[in-house]
Design goal:
CATH topology: Four Helix Bundle (Hemerythrin (Met), subunit A)
Strand order of the largest sheet: 1-2
CATH architecture: Up-down Bundle
Radius of gyration: 16 Å
Number of strands: 2
Helix content: 40-55%
Mean pLDDT: 91
Low-confidence stretches: none
Distance between the termini: 16 Å
Shape: globular
Strand content: 5-15%
Length: 151
Protein backbone atom coordinates (compact mmCIF):
# COMPACT_ATOMS: atom_id res chain seq x y z
CA UNK A 1 0.00 0.00 0.00
CA UNK A 2 2.90 2.36 0.64
CA UNK A 3 3.83 4.65 -2.20
CA UNK A 4 0.67 4.12 -4.25
CA UNK A 5 -0.79 7.23 -5.82
CA UNK A 6 -4.51 8.03 -5.63
CA UNK A 7 -4.73 7.13 -9.35
CA UNK A 8 -3.19 3.70 -8.70
CA UNK A 9 -5.44 3.10 -5.67
CA UNK A 10 -8.59 3.89 -7.67
CA UNK A 11 -7.75 2.31 -11.04
CA UNK A 12 -10.62 -0.04 -11.88
CA UNK A 13 -9.49 -3.26 -13.57
CA UNK A 14 -11.69 -4.75 -16.27
CA UNK A 15 -14.48 -7.10 -15.27
CA UNK A 16 -15.85 -7.53 -11.76
CA UNK A 17 -12.58 -7.05 -9.88
CA UNK A 18 -12.33 -4.11 -7.51
CA UNK A 19 -9.64 -1.50 -7.30
CA UNK A 20 -6.94 -1.48 -4.62
CA UNK A 21 -8.77 1.12 -2.50
CA UNK A 22 -11.89 -1.06 -2.29
CA UNK A 23 -9.92 -4.24 -1.56
CA UNK A 24 -7.87 -2.58 1.18
CA UNK A 25 -10.98 -1.02 2.70
CA UNK A 26 -12.74 -4.39 2.66
CA UNK A 27 -9.88 -5.96 4.64
CA UNK A 28 -9.75 -3.24 7.30
CA UNK A 29 -13.53 -2.94 7.72
CA UNK A 30 -13.80 -6.74 7.75
CA UNK A 31 -11.27 -7.08 10.56
CA UNK A 32 -13.06 -4.36 12.53
CA UNK A 33 -16.43 -6.11 12.16
CA UNK A 34 -15.07 -9.62 12.83
CA UNK A 35 -13.16 -8.65 15.97
CA UNK A 36 -15.34 -5.94 17.46
CA UNK A 37 -18.83 -6.98 16.46
CA UNK A 38 -18.79 -10.72 15.87
CA UNK A 39 -16.16 -11.86 18.38
CA UNK A 40 -16.30 -9.15 21.04
CA UNK A 41 -20.01 -8.25 20.75
CA UNK A 42 -19.29 -4.52 20.51
CA UNK A 43 -19.97 -2.01 17.73
CA UNK A 44 -17.13 -1.71 15.21
CA UNK A 45 -14.69 1.18 15.58
CA UNK A 46 -15.94 2.51 12.21
CA UNK A 47 -19.33 3.12 13.87
CA UNK A 48 -18.00 4.55 17.14
CA UNK A 49 -14.58 6.10 17.69
CA UNK A 50 -13.95 6.51 13.96
CA UNK A 51 -17.49 7.23 12.74
CA UNK A 52 -17.10 9.51 9.72
CA UNK A 53 -13.30 9.42 10.07
CA UNK A 54 -12.21 6.28 8.19
CA UNK A 55 -11.12 8.16 5.06
CA UNK A 56 -13.89 6.97 2.72
CA UNK A 57 -16.22 8.95 0.52
CA UNK A 58 -19.00 6.55 1.58
CA UNK A 59 -19.41 3.30 3.47
CA UNK A 60 -19.99 0.02 1.59
CA UNK A 61 -23.39 -1.66 1.51
CA UNK A 62 -23.77 -4.49 3.99
CA UNK A 63 -24.87 -7.91 2.79
CA UNK A 64 -25.12 -6.95 -0.89
CA UNK A 65 -22.30 -8.48 -2.96
CA UNK A 66 -23.52 -6.89 -6.20
CA UNK A 67 -23.73 -3.51 -4.47
CA UNK A 68 -20.23 -4.03 -3.12
CA UNK A 69 -18.75 -4.14 -6.63
CA UNK A 70 -20.63 -1.02 -7.67
CA UNK A 71 -19.56 0.77 -4.48
CA UNK A 72 -15.96 -0.38 -4.98
CA UNK A 73 -15.75 1.25 -8.40
CA UNK A 74 -17.03 4.59 -7.07
CA UNK A 75 -15.57 4.94 -3.56
CA UNK A 76 -12.71 7.34 -2.95
CA UNK A 77 -10.17 6.48 -0.27
CA UNK A 78 -7.93 8.97 1.46
CA UNK A 79 -5.17 6.54 2.51
CA UNK A 80 -3.62 9.04 4.92
CA UNK A 81 -6.96 9.59 6.65
CA UNK A 82 -7.55 5.82 6.89
CA UNK A 83 -4.16 5.11 8.46
CA UNK A 84 -5.16 6.04 12.07
CA UNK A 85 -8.31 3.92 11.74
CA UNK A 86 -6.41 0.91 10.37
CA UNK A 87 -3.84 1.27 13.16
CA UNK A 88 -6.62 1.39 15.75
CA UNK A 89 -8.22 -1.73 14.25
CA UNK A 90 -4.87 -3.55 14.46
CA UNK A 91 -4.34 -2.43 18.06
CA UNK A 92 -7.87 -3.52 19.02
CA UNK A 93 -7.26 -6.91 17.39
CA UNK A 94 -3.95 -7.34 19.23
CA UNK A 95 -5.57 -6.40 22.53
CA UNK A 96 -8.47 -8.79 21.96
CA UNK A 97 -6.15 -11.66 21.01
CA UNK A 98 -4.02 -11.04 24.12
CA UNK A 99 -7.14 -11.37 26.30
CA UNK A 100 -8.21 -14.75 24.89
CA UNK A 101 -7.95 -18.06 26.70
CA UNK A 102 -7.70 -21.34 24.83
CA UNK A 103 -11.25 -22.20 25.88
CA UNK A 104 -12.54 -19.04 24.13
CA UNK A 105 -11.51 -20.41 20.74
CA UNK A 106 -14.27 -23.04 20.69
CA UNK A 107 -17.03 -20.58 21.63
CA UNK A 108 -19.56 -20.39 18.81
CA UNK A 109 -20.57 -17.06 17.34
CA UNK A 110 -23.09 -16.04 14.70
CA UNK A 111 -21.60 -15.50 11.25
CA UNK A 112 -23.13 -14.92 7.79
CA UNK A 113 -22.64 -18.67 7.16
CA UNK A 114 -24.17 -19.86 10.44
CA UNK A 115 -22.73 -20.44 13.89
CA UNK A 116 -19.01 -21.12 13.84
CA UNK A 117 -16.29 -21.55 16.47
CA UNK A 118 -14.32 -18.38 17.16
CA UNK A 119 -11.16 -20.11 15.90
CA UNK A 120 -12.87 -20.62 12.51
CA UNK A 121 -13.57 -16.88 12.32
CA UNK A 122 -9.92 -16.11 12.96
CA UNK A 123 -8.47 -18.70 10.60
CA UNK A 124 -10.92 -18.54 7.70
CA UNK A 125 -12.69 -15.20 7.89
CA UNK A 126 -9.80 -13.10 9.18
CA UNK A 127 -6.46 -14.64 8.17
CA UNK A 128 -7.80 -16.24 4.98
CA UNK A 129 -9.59 -13.04 4.06
CA UNK A 130 -6.42 -10.93 4.40
CA UNK A 131 -4.46 -13.54 2.43
CA UNK A 132 -6.96 -13.55 -0.42
CA UNK A 133 -7.24 -9.78 -0.67
CA UNK A 134 -3.45 -9.39 -0.51
CA UNK A 135 -3.35 -11.49 -3.67
CA UNK A 136 -6.06 -9.36 -5.31
CA UNK A 137 -4.22 -6.15 -4.46
CA UNK A 138 -0.98 -7.62 -5.81
CA UNK A 139 -2.71 -8.64 -9.03
CA UNK A 140 -4.23 -5.19 -9.56
CA UNK A 141 -0.81 -3.66 -8.94
CA UNK A 142 0.64 -6.00 -11.58
CA UNK A 143 -2.08 -5.10 -14.07
CA UNK A 144 -0.95 -1.48 -13.69
CA UNK A 145 2.66 -2.39 -14.40
CA UNK A 146 3.65 -2.11 -10.73
CA UNK A 147 5.38 -4.72 -8.60
CA UNK A 148 2.76 -6.79 -6.82
CA UNK A 149 4.42 -9.30 -4.55
CA UNK A 150 8.06 -8.30 -4.11
CA UNK A 151 10.45 -10.48 -6.13
Amino acid sequence: MQGLTPQQLHWNPPGKANNIAACYTHVILGEDVIIQMMAHGKPPLAATTFAGKVGLSGMPPLGDVGGWFEWGHKVRLDANAMRPYSQAVAAATDSYFASLKESDLVRKIKTPVGEQPLLWCFSIALIGHVHDFTGEISCVEGLQGLTGYPA
